[in-house]
């Protein structure tokens, strides 16, 4: 067989492979669009009363997280999605939600975000932003949730500062080295970060898992679950996260 025939055969083979791949990508895109359209049409039925819809699913969950964390990756904060997440979590009786923005966009817009959440309330209850000057304790509300905005300074930097403080206390004779254990560090970190329990589950944006420096000490037992893009995150996706968490068997290092 001549060299020219081999080249032609190779070209035809590559062209065939390219055509097959192109066709698969086309049908994948087609079915994804159809699935999203179906999800949106289904979502409109739940928008009328999301609290009741969540309550129905709540009965089938063996456990729910006490503390939910949201890790914003490379995306900027989407107020609509984050506001919905807060109210969905409150409807599911989750007590705390932390939003970690390593780029610190949300920190600079905290007042705007708080006002947005209050104006777009979708479920009755009380949302208390920690460290907010006008915050209240929410007494008298059956449903309430505490929201915490976190940045890089709350992660490794806080641990580094605590290590430096403990070292200085040991040098001054105010603390014995034998006193420093896991429970002691937990207590001291809790005093610095608002006395919230460690996150049970964290959802992260983007297509790959990256914590971006999120609370390295407090998240050692946290379950990490992808949420994709904020703009595409719907109530069904939130419930999927809860079902995934409920099925997790936490061995705590055993």
From TrEMBL:
Gene3D superfamilies per the UniProt record, alphabetical: Decaprenyl diphosphate synthase-like
Alphabetical list of InterPro entries matching this protein: Nus1/NgBR, UPP_synth-like, UPP_synth-like_sf
GO MF annotation terms: ditrans,polycis-polyprenyl diphosphate synthase [(2E,6E)-farnesyl diphosphate specific] activity
Subcellular location: Endoplasmic reticulum membrane
Pathway(s) where this gene product acts: Protein modification; protein glycosylation
Source organism superkingdom: Eukaryota
Gene Ontology terms: cellular component: dehydrodolichyl diphosphate synthase complex; endoplasmic reticulum membrane
Signal peptide annotation: none
Enzyme Commission no: 2.5.1.87
Keywords, alphabetical: Endoplasmic reticulum, Magnesium, Membrane, Receptor, Transferase, Transmembrane, Transmembrane helix
Main location: endoplasmic reticulum
Alphabetized SUPFAM superfamilies for the sequence: Undecaprenyl diphosphate synthase
Cofactor(s) this protein requires: Mg(2+)
UniProt catalytic activity: n isopentenyl diphosphate + (2E,6E)-farnesyl diphosphate = a di-trans,poly-cis-polyprenyl diphosphate + n diphosphate
Membrane-crossing residue ranges in chain numbering: 6-27
Family: Belongs to the UPP synthase family.
UniProt name for this protein: ditrans,polycis-polyprenyl diphosphate synthase [(2E,6E)-farnesyldiphosphate specific]
Protein source organism: Phlebotomus kandelakii
């Amino acid at each position: 067989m001549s060299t020219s025939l081999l080249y032609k055969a190779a070209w035809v083979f590559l062209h065939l492979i390219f055509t097959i791949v192109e066709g698969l990508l086309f049908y994948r895109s087609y079915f994804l669009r159809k699935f999203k359209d179906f999800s949106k049409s289904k979502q409109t039925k739940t928008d009328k009363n999301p609290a009741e819809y969540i309550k129905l699913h709540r009965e089938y969950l063996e456990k729910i997280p006490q503390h939910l964390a949201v890790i914003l990756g490379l995306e900027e904060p989407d107020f609509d999605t984050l506001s919905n997440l807060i109210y969905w979590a409150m409807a599911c009786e989750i007590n705390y939600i932390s939003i970690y923005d390593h780029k610190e966009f949300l920190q600079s817009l905290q007042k705007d975000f708080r006002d947005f959440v209050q104006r777009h309330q979708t479920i009755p209850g009380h949302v208390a932003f920690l460290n907010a000057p006008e915050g209240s304790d929410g007494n008298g509300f059956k449903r309430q949730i505490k929201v915490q905005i976190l940045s890089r300074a709350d992660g490794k930097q806080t641990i580094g500062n605590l290590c430096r403080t403990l070292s200085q206390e040991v040098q001054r004779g105010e603390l014995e080295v034998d006193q420093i254990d896991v429970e002691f560090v937990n207590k001291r970190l809790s005093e610095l970060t608002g006395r919230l329990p460690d996150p049970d589950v964290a959802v992260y944006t983007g297509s790959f898992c990256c914590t971006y420096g999120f609370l390295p000490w407090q998240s050692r037992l946290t379950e990490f679950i992808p949420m994709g893009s904020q703009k595409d995150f719907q109530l069904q996706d939130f419930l999927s996260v809860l079902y995934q968490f409920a099925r997790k068997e936490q061995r705590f290092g055993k």
